[in-house]
Amino acid sequence: MRELLTHITEAKPQQPVTENPEEPQRVRLPPLTPWRIYLAHHKHSEFLIGPGVLWVYAQFRTRTDANRSDQLRLDFVVERTDGSIVTFHPGRVPRGDAKLHLYAPCEFRP
Description:
The chain has helices spanning 2-11, 35-41, 45-49, and strands at 26-27, 53-64, 72-80, 85-88, 101-103. 20% of the residues lie in helices and 27% in strands. The chain is globular, with a radius of gyration of 13 Å. A 5-stranded antiparallel beta sheet has the order 1-2-3-4-5. A hairpin with a 7-residue loop joins strand 2 and strand 3 (72-80). The chain has 3 helices and 5 strands; from the N terminus they run H-E-H-H-E-E-E-E. By secondary structure, the chain is α+β, with helices and mostly antiparallel strands.
């Protein structure tokens, strides 16, 4: 999944602009992305999956990535069946993963 973040960031270094800046900017994952396997084998899989998963996508955030000085940070977003959202940013190795963030329904902002 880390390689996918790198690939997307290199291909789309800036978040697309839309008429509604409050609307999350989703970057669709390629159809064969093994996100289900990644979530199932993650050490915090129960937290990531919660009551169930509706969507998984990548999204540029409003802050910059510390590892990519002038580019926006790109995170994976998990929309769950209860309306909550979990964001994660995998590292090059599992111990390098960024902290998971849980947002209540309607609380998430890109």
